């Protein structure tokens, strides 16, 4: 819809040239050391205006407005606020934080209980057929049944993700990291995404894939936070008309950080780790008050989870379920100084294996981007992986003879398989229990290293599929396997040393592997400290994570950062790359810059919004010596910045000035409400001002 | 020394008026809501140039240069850096962090061992006389001896502080907080201060004052960090010529933050708490990489302390001394939801009592500022407090009959006093052991509430004396006392309930009282979680601290903030006070502003530096339409900012331009080294350019 024909009789056409700044020295070619910086600035001359053009990576991503826009409207409303309103907003923040923690924990409970219930069902169904069959001839039936069930579950998960909401794939941590750092990943915090994520992760885990559910929990917390804090839902088209003062990008970001922390807290029983996770990932906006509120949300989350899971397990108020991930009894482990070189060695191994994992996964992901971009192909690949995983599990179960006496650990799913009566196959138990239970087992029981190797490869293939999946558990499991091996080897060399506890080395290996893959530092250390409940073991864990990160960083980045790069997200890291801190911004900017004047022709605004993909435009004016100090230049002075969404609101409400009288005819007097009401789904200029586009 | 007469024949006298910006609307009187903002801007017209004028609070404090000065010199050197240099700096940072943690822990060990040794000696000497005397007639002798010994110790501590280094008084936490937030408190991180602090706190504790040593540990860590990172010492006049690249305010600040964290870590065995403490107090400059390094320093600190104290106690490598403060066995305490209302109540009590403590201490401190400003009066007051403390201890020991069987706890100092053979007076033990041991006792043994009341009053009188003293232990002790009372009361009402554990309520009371006094939030929660070794009890602790803070904030600020205000330190808080966020800076600025031109007369520079106390001057130039965009105005354009210290260096090296040729005659080519070499003791303009003034 072209407004200019309708409006132009009312407005004076401007005839002077649009002023713009001279660019400086753009003949020095735009030096963009890692490809990220050039992607962050808008390309110039986006004539086609096609947002879906895959060759223009940057066009896919908009920035979030994390600066508070202190315009006249804002200042007027700030002045008009009374103490009661300020107090109400403060209280509202705490109330929202409480519910973020509470609901995130409930969702975590639901996921956990759902997975356990469905897993039990699956196990019982398969057990019937396994028990009927004690020799190899009739094994085909239970095998096919097992495969069919797994495929069915994974098929559902992949369908939901590939066709329902692709941004629900993976863990969600890279997307949340981008969101917290100012890049708007489309649909990342929608309720629909939450739905696909929750159902999808349950299906994937029950389907036996080599994944964990912790990452998706963090994403879920973020969505819950975004939803509650805005008091509305686009998916359900309801607007509770509360929390309007939170309908700004920077407010939403603060709550999303709390949601992510609550998710970590529920997943690992690690409230402080959750806070540090949000800090570490979304460093740019930390402030004291926010950290305290995020901590509150985390605490509420772990407490709520604790209460509900305790009630579910019939031990109400015993509060022994701080998080979904239970490492077992590590509170009493100690270490002595002589072991530190061993930990350093394990850290090196973790860094190497983690770098290898990331490298393989990177190659796989590039392959997927090129050849498996169609949804049906993605679903097919997921099904294929499910088949393979189940087949491997089946083969290992039958070839590895590792029978344990029944009753050793009642939470496992005992299958007799080829063992004698009164015994069960521990290898089969590994595959039938949830991955979290396997973590516990590997830390404490005798398992075979073969499991570790195959799990490593399967996990590497699995991450990046079109299903919601977490990375933590597969990495912990893999590391626990080789760590335990290491411990067992040590034990055989030093049978008398009581400090050689294979379970302890399994824990160290798990930390090393996880650190080698994700390369997180302080938050991961604290998460593991809290999850193990052992503070004094914090130093070995820290050493191991530090070494793993340093070694891994020699080869490649952490897996989350790799996937962010793969998707071409223009994420600016905290520090500039080495040797680039002296490069001035002008060397990477495009030219010319599209600017608007303080009074602008509506037709020109509409043209610009249609032709260009920019989301912000500098406003310039002529140099006025008597005005207050401004950033000035021959061609004009910088007056401010206006965003696309603000222009859209002005156009929508036709808040125009009459060209000669300067009065505003037949329009509403704009206030912040007009902006927060449409936030965040500002209509597109292309489809007309009446329909949402995002 | 007036340079202008020497220089002026070489330079052209400028005759045009010095341009300066017009101020805007200063008729609207400078609205300064809490007195802090007006103190932060320099007064204009400081004709006398007297920095010691007590009526000009702001003149006492300079700001620290926390922005990186990206001038031509800096940019040239950044470009010239090669990868090797960058790597070397990175490695150096980690090495320095290691030694910060290591040395801080050693100092903490030294303090701890020193206190324990001297306390034992004092106890043995007094015990001889006590044992000789079993009736009341001859008690005068041991009493006078006890008083004499305590007075002697406290007298030494007060002498060192009042005459040696006054900034060593108190805990040091307020000063470190100011330093981390950009206010230069004179002498706060000098080695001399460290010396006075360490010796002083040992003397004060042994002298029986109602203080703790934890706060001084944090200050000590900060000094160690400042010293090591600069590779030099002004006190010892040595310059190791290393770490020159760290000789900037922002680098020093980063290391000081690490030192403070290492101090917390050593004091409480709380490395994560230490990191959060630095974060919470010095919020303005947080970044990811720094947090990881600070965590490393904290971990090294607690590990080193652990190793050395274990060796000292003959249990090498058992590593059971994570921190100097030992809360005893709290790892197994649990709670249920029904107790939460009780915790909320205790939080309210803690907030009220904390606000009362702060109020009394504030009144006392105002009195001290007015009437006890002379050092000898301060020493006298300290001695008086020591006498009173000892007398109270003595009287309580003899009037409160609380005998326990010997051998109950071998670390106490048993005095038979009035008890039967084989028993000892537990009240006397409370007064003879170190305060940290008392914490443990009060948490776990039967003690009288009288102790709590008197300790509250003595602690209130003691904080603010001219001795190094910490606040944490007195607050914890007081809270433990009333918390335990509360637990005992509950126990008498519900004798059958097994959840009523007076020790647990002592812990909650301690947290409430400490939170009510210092009003710290997340860092204190985590410190207490780590110190008790109990993560699940984190939620009650957090609730209690939150309530105590909210209740206390109704009446007054935290004690550290109160003392910062008392000293008139122009500390800008994170958030503006409520209802002030719309006030523009121009309404609180002074006028006119002293500016310099890009080429300036040496004589004028010298005059300005002598007459005015400013530490920074804007540089303005005429409007040039062809120049790159600048902040411009009728009267000129802002070109940059130059600091007093930079001007001093230019004057010192006579880096002048010849007025006609523009060449630089007979001077060195300045580089960053010239600035870092003199940092931080830039000479004063008054005493000539050759002597340091700071």
UniProtKB/TrEMBL annotation, chains A, B:
One of its GO terms (cellular component) is lysosomal membrane. This is Chloride channel protein. Belongs to the chloride channel (TC 2.A.49) family. The chain crosses the membrane at residues 94-115, 136-160, 191-211, 255-278, 290-309, 340-360, 380-400, 448-465, 471-493, 535-552. The lineage of its organism: Eukaryota, Metazoa, Spiralia, Lophotrochozoa, Annelida. GO terms for molecular function: chloride channel activity. Residues 18-30 have a biased composition (Polar residues). It is a multi-pass membrane protein. Residues 589-660 form the CBS domain. Pfam families: Voltage_CLC (PF00654). InterPro entries: CBS_dom (IPR000644), CBS_dom_sf (IPR046342), Cl-channel/antiporter (IPR051280), Cl-channel_core (IPR014743), ClC (IPR001807). Residues 1-38 are annotated as: Disordered. It comes from the Eukaryota. Keywords: CBS domain, Chloride, Ion transport, Membrane, Repeat, Transmembrane, Transmembrane helix, Transport. It is found in: Membrane. The keyword NAD does not apply.
């Amino acid at each position: 819809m072209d407004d200019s024909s309708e409006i132009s009789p009312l407005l004076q056409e401007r005839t002077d040239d649009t002023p713009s700044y001279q660019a400086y020295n753009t003949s020095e070619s735009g030096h963009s050391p890692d490809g990220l910086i050039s992607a962050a600035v808008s390309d110039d001359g986006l004539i086609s205006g096609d947002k879906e053009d895959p060759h223009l990576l940057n066009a896919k991503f908009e920035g979030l407005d994390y600066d508070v826009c202190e315009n006249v409207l804002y200042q007027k409303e700030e002045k008009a606020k009374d103490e009661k309103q300020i107090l109400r907003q403060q209280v509202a923040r705490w109330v929202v934080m409480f519910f973020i923690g509470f609901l995130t924990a409930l969702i975590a409970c639901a996921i956990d209980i759902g997975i356990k219930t469905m897993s039990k069902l699956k196990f019982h169904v398969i057990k019937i057929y396994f028990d009927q069959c004690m020799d190899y001839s009739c094994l085909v039936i239970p095998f096919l049944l097992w495969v069919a069930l797994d495929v069915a579950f994974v098929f559902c998960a992949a369908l939901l993700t590939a066709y329902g909401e692709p941004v629900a794939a993976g863990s969600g941590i890279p997307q949340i990291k981008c969101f917290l750092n100012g890049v708007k990943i489309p649909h990342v915090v929608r309720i629909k995404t939450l739905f696909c994520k929750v159902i999808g992760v349950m299906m994937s885990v029950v389907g036996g894939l080599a994944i964990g559910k912790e990452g998706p929990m963090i994403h879920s917390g973020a969505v819950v936070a975004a939803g509650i804090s805005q008091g509305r839902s686009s998916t359900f088209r309801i607007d509770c008309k509360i929390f309007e003062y939170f309908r700004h990008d920077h407010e939403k970001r603060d709550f999303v950080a709390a949601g992510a922390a609550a998710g970590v807290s529920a997943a690992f029983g690690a409230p402080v780790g959750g806070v540090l996770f949000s800090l570490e990932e979304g460093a740019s906006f930390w402030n004291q008050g926010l950290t305290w509120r995020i901590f509150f949300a985390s605490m509420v989350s772990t407490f709520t989870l604790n209460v509900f899971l305790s009630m579910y397990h019939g031990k109400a108020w015993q509060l022994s379920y701080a998080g979904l991930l239970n490492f077992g009894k590590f509170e009493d482990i100690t270490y002595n100084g002589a072991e530190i070189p061993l930990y350093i060695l394990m850290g090196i191994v973790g860094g190497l294996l983690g770098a290898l994992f990331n490298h393989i996964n990177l190659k796989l992901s590039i392959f997927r981007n090129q050849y498996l971009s169609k949804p049906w192909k993605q679903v097919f690949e997921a099904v294929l992986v499910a088949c393979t995983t189940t087949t491997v599990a089946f083969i290992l179960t039958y070839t590895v003879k590792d029978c344990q006496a029944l009753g050793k650990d009642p939470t496992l799913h005992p299958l007799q398989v080829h063992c004698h009566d009164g015994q069960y196959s521990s290898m089969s138990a590994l595959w039938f229990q949830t991955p979290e239970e396997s973590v516990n087992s590997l830390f404490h029981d005798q398992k075979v290293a073969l499991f570790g190797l195959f799990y490593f490869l399967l996990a590497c293939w699995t991450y990046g599929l079109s299903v919601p999946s977490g990375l933590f558990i597969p990495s912990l499991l893999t590391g626990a396997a080789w760590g335990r091996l290491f411990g067992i080897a040590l034990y055989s060399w030093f049978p008398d040393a009581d400090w050689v506890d294979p379970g302890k080395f399994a824990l160290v290996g798990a930390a090393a592997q996880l650190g080698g893959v994700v390369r997180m530092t302080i938050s991961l250390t604290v998460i593991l400290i809290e999850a193990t409940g052992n503070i004094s073991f914090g130093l070995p864990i820290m050493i191991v994570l530090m070494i793993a990160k340093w070694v891994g960083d020699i080869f490649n980045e952490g897996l989350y950062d790799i996937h962010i790069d793969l998707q071409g997200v223009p994420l600016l890291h905290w520090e500039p790359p080495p040797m680039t801190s002296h490069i001035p911004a002008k060397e990477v900017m495009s030219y010319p810059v599209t600017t608007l004047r303080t009074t602008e022709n509506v037709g020109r605004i509409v043209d610009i919004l249609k032709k260009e993909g920019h989301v912000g435009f500098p406003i310039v004016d002529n140099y006025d010596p008597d005005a207050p100090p401004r950033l000035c230049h021959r061609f004009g002075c910088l007056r401010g910045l206006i965003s696309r969404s603000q222009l859209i609101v002005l156009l929508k409400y036709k808040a125009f000035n009459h060209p000669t009288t300067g009065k505003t005819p037949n329009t509403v007097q704009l206030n912040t409400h007009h902006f927060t009401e449409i936030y965040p789904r500002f209509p597109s200029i292309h489809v007309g001002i009446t329909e949402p586009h995002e």
